[in-house]
Every structure is written in structure tokens, then in C-alpha cells.
Input
Amino acid sequence: MKELGRLLRFARPYWAALLASTVLMAGVGAGQALVVLLVRSVFDRVLQPDTPDALVLLVNIPVIHKALYLQQIVPSFLHNVWTMVAAAIVEVYLFKGLCDYLGNFLISYAGFSAVTDLRQRVFDCVLHQDAHFFETNSTGRLMSAILNDIDKIQEAVSHMLADWLRQVFTLIALLIVVIQTDWKLAIVSLTVLPFVLVPTARLGKRIRRTSRKAQDNTAELNEILQETISGQQVVKTFGTEEFESNRFLVAARRLKNTSLKYVAQQAVASPVIEFFGALTIVGLLTYARSQIKIGAMTTGEFTSFVIALLMLYEPVKRLTGIHNIFEQALGASQKVFEYLDRERGIQDKPSAHRLHRFQHSISFENVSFRYPGAPDGFLLHDIQLEVKAGEVVALVGPSGAGKTTLANLAPRFYDATSGAVKIDGRDVRDVKLASLREKIGIVAQDTFLFNDTVANNIRYGRANASDEEVREAARSALAEEFILAMPQGYDTLIGERGTKLSGGQRQRIAIARALLKNAPILILDEATSQLDTESELLVQKALQKLMEKRTVIVIAHRLSTIRRADKIVVLDRGRISETGTHADLISQGGIYQRLHDMQYLTLTAGAAPESLPEKSTAG
Ligand SMILES: Nc1ncnc2c1ncn2[C@@H]1O[C@H](COP(=O)(O)OP(=O)(O)O)[C@@H](O)[C@H]1O
Ligand SMILES: [Mg+2]
Output
């Protein structure tokens, strides 16, 4: 029920629409009751032409003790009973229809608006989560929560809330009619209600669980779908279509079974109610026969009573059905609120300052780190490292040594487990995240490009950059030539993740993007390692441009590219094992020398034929 309160809070800004629709739905309920009352007049007055044209009492409204006469709801020039009833029937249906239409619209307006707000909140929340969150929640599951779970809530609040109000008011109005007609009979016939309501309420809880499970199964299906579509190339390469198809089938079967279980639970309510309804009607008929015989009840009274009672079962039945859908929505909202409630691991402290400018240094002081998902064992141990402004510092070391991890601590993708990363002497945890990240440009090994135009991809992060600035950046990144060769130049769509581009082209777009961002600090994480020799050369040149007048942390697996670094730091199993310039390290007999010798050997042995033509063009 906690969830219900929170859901309602999202509806609060739309209270006026909700209030109006509540009033309108009350109109629908009253209209329904009037229809029943008119039926009574039809039997007792219209079909008995010998009765006088006196006032026709429709109902004595209890509580406020007011009587409502037929003459009050039709134009005064009508006198004949039949024309009055006929006019009233037309009027009542018109009124009821209008109320229903407007009420429905307004409540949907409130519902859609509230759900749109909720969805936006969840999206923003997910967007601001840290890297660890995305490691533990798959894309497919998150998409399922933001789309499917919120859809369930949407269904409940927009369609079902309207119906719920309509049915509640109809129920109240009909109850008044029934009680007012013969209260003793009403009580007797309503004693079956608890037999209906108690079991259905019990069922509700179970339905909620089942429906939550169905949502989870949908999420699982989503996950498989998302993975196999974005990994379709791997699927094709390894010929695992059948394996994936099976995985999908198993998940789909699970969803089917849960859905069937849901239907089995949900569909039981309605027949049960109808059965009790039938029992009641049979009993009533027996009683009514005797009452009409002794003149204690008119045919009109009895008919309208039974009609009201039959109509009454409809809202009861519908309300239990709607109740189930609400249960479902509450089940779905559990998950959604879980995302909303998640503490952000990495966020601004209330006291955080803006970092205006980067001037002096980035320093890692006794930094140790372990991944939140990997409780055993530290990955980085007691790192001491200073990167002065304007310096190029290279991180080298075997794969898995922790180079990327160390670099990622600077923009706070993760926070150090102990020790501190400081920028200009200030702990990065004490400055505003946005102002910190704005100072750091990153070109990583594989670049994410959006399915948008080339120009917009370069402009990403600086939406107000002019076309000229975009072109300038592309030129400096040596990307203009291939961009202009594409069908629509800068306006060419580059496909999901930039699939229409080669690796080297993607990297140069990423470099143009970083150039345009113009951040004083630059992290290059194996930016050229995926490239063939020729594009590597181009990207190298583009990087050279990017590194000018910047503070750079460069991670490179090819040592030839970092010879000129001001400082080379060798990382081994999370510890710094050597520090110095190329000249210092090359003769120390340590890891650096070993790596260097190894690469030199493979270069001369393996890659020699490839590099020959280059040499000839260069020379
Ligand atoms: N998100 C993560 N969660 C848990 N462990 C990770 C994560 N990312 C990397 N690792 C582990 O940390 C180690 C170092 O990774 P990384 O810093 O990427 O190495 P390098 O960049 O030096 O090749 C690897 O052994 C890897 O298994
Ligand atoms: Mg790495």
C-alpha cells in the first residue's frame, strides 16, 4: 500500500482534472440510478393508462431527505406521463453519456500526465546512476522497467481509474435505489456480498505476486532480445542461432506459464460472483411472487428492484476485476520505485564546489581500489602518482594490470576505496561532478557513437557548437576527407553505434568530438589499439593534434607511441613498479624493458612486410 501513496503523489499536480472527473463520474452513477427509476415509472404509470397524471415520485434521497419527481427533470410543457418518461430517458442517457465522455477524458489526462512524470523521473534516475549500477542491471531489464512496468501502471491509472470511479458511483447510486425500494429485501439480497468480496480480496495478493513474476519474465525476454540483436554479428559468427532461439523459447515459455497462472487466478472471480447472483435472483423471485399477490409490492417496484440488483452485480464484478489490475500495477510499481529509491553511489556532496579551472596537477594519493562487484581482493594498491599540468604521462603494463581502472578514477566513474584522487589539491569527491567531467576529455578503445548524423555525433556534449567549429574539429582530427566522401557529408547517418564506419573512422570522429569539447585534461585509453597500421598512423597524427597544450594520461599498448611521454609509469598487478622516462626505463632491466624488447621483436619479425610500403612512401 506504500506504493499506492507514492503513485498518488505523482497524480497530485493534476488534482483539478481528477476532481472534475470524479464529479462527472458521480453524474454517470446518478444517471444509471435514474434509468432504473424510470423503468419503475414505465411499469407502474405508463403501462397502466388508468392512473391519474399526478406527480411521479422518482426517489426519496436518503440522508438529505429530498424527494425527486419526474416533473422536475423534464421541460414543464410536457404533461402526459409517457412523453415525460420518454423525454426523461433521452435526457438521462444524454447526460450520462456526456459525463462519461468528459470524465473519461479528464481522468486519462491526469493518468497519462502523472505516468509521463513518473517515467521521466525513473529515466533521469537511471541516467544518473554510476558505472556499478549498469554493471549489475542489464540494458534489457532496465528497458523493461522503464517501458513495460510503467505501461502496467499507465493502464491502471488511466483506463482503470476511470472505470473504477464510474463503477463505484454506479454502485452507490444503485444501492440507494435498492434500499429505498425495500430495505429489508435489500439487506437480505446483499448478504451474499461478503461471500464474494472476501475470497476475491484474498486472491488479490496472489495475483499481485503472479503479475510481478510475469513482469520479471518479460524483462528476461527483453534482455535476451536486446542482447541477441546488438550481438547479432557474434551470433552469426559462431552460428549460435539455435542456441539463442532456445534461450528465447525457454524464457517465453516461462512467461506463458506465468501468464496462464495469472489468468487462472484472475478469471475465477467473475463466474463466482455470477453464480451467487443467480442464487439471489431465484430466492428473490420466490419472495416477490408472494408479495405481489398480497399487494405489498407493485410490479414496477419489483422489476426496478431486480434490474437494480442485476445492475449492481456488474459494478461489483468489474470492481474486483479492476482491483486485480490495480494489484498488478502495484506489483509493477515496486520495481519502478526500487530504481527511484536507489542511492546514487557517486553524486555531488551538498558542499561540493565548482571546479572553475584546471591549473596545477592531478594527483593520486595512496589510492587503493577494488570493484564494488568484486569484494575479494584489491585491484589497485597504494598508488602514488602526480600528473602535472601540461605533462604527458603514460601508463603501461600487461593487460589486466589496472591501467583503465586507474584512469577511470579521475573522472569519478568509480571512487577510490581508500586514499584520494585530487585535482589542483582538492579531492575529486569535493567538487561538482559536472564541473569535474567537463575538464576531462576521453578517447577510449571503443567509442560509442549515436545513430545520428556525423555532425551531431561530433557536436555531442556541445550542442551549441557552430557548423564551422564542427568542421574545424573534423579537419584537425583528419576526419574531414572521409566525411565529405560519404553520401550526405556531415549529414550522413552513421548507423547504430556507427556501424557504417570503419574502426579508424570511428576513432577519428571520437577525436573530433574530444577536440570540440576542448577539455584541458585528456585521457587516451588504448585509442589506437584496435586499428590497422594505416588508420593507426592517421589516428596517431590526429591524437598528436589533440594532445597539444593539454595534460594527458595516455594508455598505449604500443610503446612506440609513448616514447616522448614526460613520464612513463609501469603498472603491474595493481602496483606501480617503475617510473621514469623512456631513456631511464629502457636500460633498467624491468618490465618496461621486457615489454619493449618483446614488441621490438614482434615488430621486426611479424609486422615487417606490412610496414615496408609505409617506409617507402615516407622515405
Ligand atoms: N567493472 C569491473 N568489475 C569488476 N572487475 C573489473 C571491472 N573492470 C575490470 N575489472 C577487473 O580489473 C582488472 C583490471 O582491469 P583494467 O583496469 O581494465 O586493466 P587494464 O586496463 O590494465 O588492461 C581486470 O582483471 C578485470 O578483470
Ligand atoms: Mg584497459
Observations:
- The radius of gyration is 37 Å.
- Confidence is low (pLDDT under 50) at residues 606-619.
